[in-house]
Structures are given as C-alpha cells and as structure tokens.
Design goal:
GO terms for molecular function: acyl-CoA dehydrogenase activity; flavin adenine dinucleotide binding. It holds the Pfam family Acyl-CoA_dh_N. Its cofactor is FAD. This protein is α+β, with helices and mostly antiparallel strands. It folds into three domains: 124 residues, Butyryl-Coa Dehydrogenase, subunit A, domain 1 (Orthogonal Bundle); 117 residues, Butyryl-CoA Dehydrogenase, subunit A, domain 2; 149 residues, Butyryl-CoA Dehydrogenase, subunit A, domain 3, CATH 1.20.140. It is built from twelve helices and nine strands. It has a four-stranded antiparallel β-sheet, with no helix packed on it. Strand 8 and strand 9 form a beta hairpin. Helix 4 crosses helix 8 and helix 10 crosses helix 12. Bound molecules: flavin-adenine dinucleotide. The site of flavin-adenine dinucleotide has 22 residues, from strand 1, strand 3 and helix 12.
Length: 407
C-alpha cells in the first residue's frame, strides 16, 4: 500500500528539484513583489515566470485524476500518487499555483470536467487548464448559516432566455484576483420544492457581468491571502443566458456534494507539507539557539515537543494515504467516512504542530519573517472552509453509530 508508482516517484523527484531551484530561492522576491504591488490582487510577474518553467518541466496540472487523463499531458494520477506531490507543494503556501494545482481552481476544473457541456468546457475549462484564467466557487452567504447548504438564499430566477441572480456571497476565494474570469454560483431556483436538496441550481457567471460588485477583500487572522484572496460579492439583477446552467436546474446540491470531497483531501495533503516544513525549521532553530547554558535541542521539553510533532505528522500522513487509497479503490462516494475523518483530523493536528514550531522561534515565529504564521492561518481556516469540522463530525458520527449499533 505504501509504494507509490514509478511515475509518481519520478514526478516527486523532479518537483523537489524544482522547489529547490525555483521556489525556495524566490520566497523573498515573491513577498517583495506582493508588498510593492499597487493592487495586491493583480497577478505577480514572478508567478508567470515560474508557471512557464513548471510547464516546461512537465510539472503542470498534476492534480488531474486518472479517469480524466484526456485533460492533461502526464496521463493522470491516482489520489494516492498525487498525495506526496501535493504535500511537496504545500511547503510554500503560494507554490501550488505555479503548478496549476491551487484551490479553488483544481476543484472548479473538476466540476467542469464532471458536469459541464462541451461548449462550457471549451470556453472555461481550456483556459483554466492552461493557467490563463482563474475561477471562483460561490456558495457561502453572510446572512445564513452556510454550513447547511440548503440554507442558501441567493435567488436564481428564469426570465425569458436568461437566469437572473440576486443575493450576496462572502469568503469567495479567488474572486478578488484580477485573473479570475468565471464564477460558479450556487443559488435557489425552486425554494418551494418539497425536497430541500432539489431547490438549488448552479450557474456559470462571468466575473465582468453587469450587476456584480466586489464589496471587499476579507482576511483571516489578518491575512488577505493575496493575490488570490477571498471576497464579499453582491449580485444585483445579474443576467446570464439559460445555457449557463451547470448540469441542470435543481441539481446544484448534487454538484456541491460531488465537488467538495477531492478538494478537502487536497488541502489536507498540502497541510502535511506545511507541518513537515515547520518541523524541519524548528529542529534547525532548536539546534542553534542557546538558553540557560545549552541549546534548545538539549532541553527535555523541546525534545518532547519535536517528538510529538514528528509522530503527529506521521499519523496525519498515514491517514491521508489511507483515505487516498480508499478513494482510488472504491470511489469518492464510498469514501465519505474516511474523507470526513481526514478533514476533521489533519488540519487540527497540523495547526497544533505548527503552533509548537512557532513557539520555538520566539517572537519572530509570529511574524511574516518565518513560514509558520501564514501556515498556521492556512491550517486554521481549513477547519472552516469546505464546511466546518462539526458538520463533518455530525455526519461521520451518525454513519459510524449506524454501522455498529445493531451488531
Ligand atoms: C479562508 C476561507 C475560504 C473560503 N472559501 C470559500 C469559497 O471559495 N466559496 C465558498 O462558497 N465558501 C468559502 N468559504 C466559506 C466556508 O465554506 C464556510 O465558512 C463554511 O461552510 C461555514 O459556513 P458559515 O461560515 O456560514 O458558518 P455557519 O454555518 O454559520 O456555522 C458556524 C459554526 O456553527 C457550528 N455548527 C454548524 N453546524 C453545526 C452542527 N451541526 N453541530 C455543531 N456545530 C455546528 C460550527 O462551529 C460552525 O463553525 C471559505 C471560508 C474560509 C474561512
């Protein structure tokens, strides 16, 4: 089970070399370009240079699964084989975009692969796969508890040969980014339908459609995650043609269910990389700082913290691999138990590991001079994005009780 294919191993070796040659040496330059940018949500020249290099190196669209091999040059990878690659990318928060493997675009591209018509794919999926444009997935709303997707209120009404959208969304990742051109918007088209799961529809809305206003960029723990960012958006009589519907009227909930499983796993894979890098930095720090006559590394409590962190990263990695293997063998639908177990365990474990490593770096660990603060923010928000932990625990708990109660 723990042997990755030769293809995955070769790609990982190439990716590690690429990270050493092009990503780590550019971390300072990237931060400087972002700090100097007049518009924090404009594409950075460095990102474009690195994307070209990644394409040339054959490290492009690595997220594309085997059953969608026709959409990439490398022939697709199993979940299990993609896990170590996503982990490697997670060692630098902005690195996944270099390889066209960042959220939310990977999840959105999979929506286009699974549910879009040929015409919709030609118009949006092709430039997304080429990294020319970016996309957003707009579901969450400020005025309702959106962890219950049946609550959402944005109105989608038919008027002649158009859909008309009215409502407000927030925390829409990528919407601020200048390169983002298309929103996948979920709203209610049939609020009176007796089935709460057939009331929703998803439509494709070009970002420049009249009636769309980007209200503000949002931050989490002070981070704006620019240039991709998260936005609050108002839709005021936004009109798109009927053919912009995805899959069909009333099928929005079904798409939402299908989209979020793989995306949750990808976050967990990347987070393992963020934790592993934090641990490595903490070990270097512990070996090089001295308090009370000896290096930090010689204090018992520091060794305990390092040992706990190492063990927890190993646990988290094994869980990700176990779930990935199950998805490959049995599919996403049959793996929802393991996906929920992973989604509710890994971000919290990683957050704790990163917190310990931050502490060992003293005051500096809390600043942007080091990797940990931004990585901590990433782990923390992954406990909320794609549904809060409690909702997944509610569903998983029920499933497990049902499984064993009558035995
Ligand atoms: C950085 C970031 C990026 C995001 N990106 C996107 C995006 O691109 N597109 C998008 O549509 N959304 C996005 N989200 C939003 C995210 O999916 C929602 O925040 C999440 O689904 C929860 O919805 P809510 O914020 O309305 O919380 P609410 O539904 O109001 O829930 C609040 C809290 O109630 C508790 N709770 C809820 N249900 C239960 C329960 N059954 N049992 C016990 N406790 C419960 C939980 O503690 C939960 O955190 C993003 C969020 C963040 C932080």
């Amino acid at each position: 089970m723990f042997q990755h294919s030769e293809k995955s191993q070769l790609l990982l070796a190439k990716l590690k070399t690429f990270m050493d040659e092009h990503i780590y040496p550019n971390e300072t330059a990237y931060a400087e370009q972002l700090h100097r940018a007049e518009n924090r949500f404009a594409p950075l020249p460095l990102m474009d240079e690195l994307k070209e290099k990644a394409k040339a190196a054959g490290l492009w669209n690595l997220f594309v699964p085997e059953d969608h091999a026709q959409y990439c040059e490398h022939g697709g990878l199993s979940f299990f084989d993609y896990a170590p690659l996503a982990e490697e990318m997670g060692r630098v928060i902005w690195a996944p975009e270099v390889f066209n493997c960042n959220a939310p675009d990977t999840g959105n591209m999979e929506v286009f692969m699974n549910y879009a018509t040929q015409a919709q794919q030609d118009k949006w999926l092709k430039p997304l796969l080429a990294g020319e444009i970016r996309s957003s997935y707009a579901m969450t709303e400020p005025q309702v508890a959106s962890s219950d997707a049946t609550n959402i209120q944005l109105e989608i009404k038919k008027d002649g040969d158009e859909w008309v959208l009215n409502g407000r969304k927030w925390f829409i990742t990528g919407a601020m980014y200048e390169r983002t051109k298309i929103f996948i918007v979920m709203g209610k088209s049939d609020p009176q339908n007796p089935s709460r799961h057939l009331q929703q529809t998803q439509v494709l809305v070009p970002k420049d459609t009249p009636g769309i206003t980007l209200i503000r960029p949002l931050t989490t723990l002070g981070y704006d995650d620019a240039p991709i960012g998260h936005a609050e958006i108002v839709f005021d009589n936004v009109r798109v043609p009927l053919e912009n519907v995805l899959l069909g009227e009333g099928r929005g909930f079904e798409i939402a269910q299908g989209r979020l499983g793989p995306g949750r796993m990808h976050h967990c894979m990347r987070l393992i990389g963020s934790a592993q890098r934090s641990l490595e930095l903490a070990c270097k720090r512990a070996a090089s700082r001295t308090t009370f006559g000896r290096t930090l590394s010689k204090h018992q409590s520091v060794r305990e913290e390092i040992s706990k962190s190492f063990s927890e990263i190993e646990m988290a990695r094994l869980l990700v691999l176990r779930t990935s293997h199950k998805i490959d063998e049995e599919g996403v639908a049959a793996s929802v138990d393991m996906i929920a177990a992973t989604k509710t365990t890994v971000p919290l474990l990683v957050q704790t590991v990163i917190d310990r490593c931050m502490q060992m770096h003293g005051a500096g660990g809390l600043t942007e001079d080091y990797f940990m603060a931004e990585a901590f923010n990433y782990a923390r928000w992954c406990r909320q994005a794609d549904g809060p932990d409690q909702v997944h625990q509610m569903a998983l708990g029920k499933k497990i009780i049902d499984r064993y109660a009558d035995q």
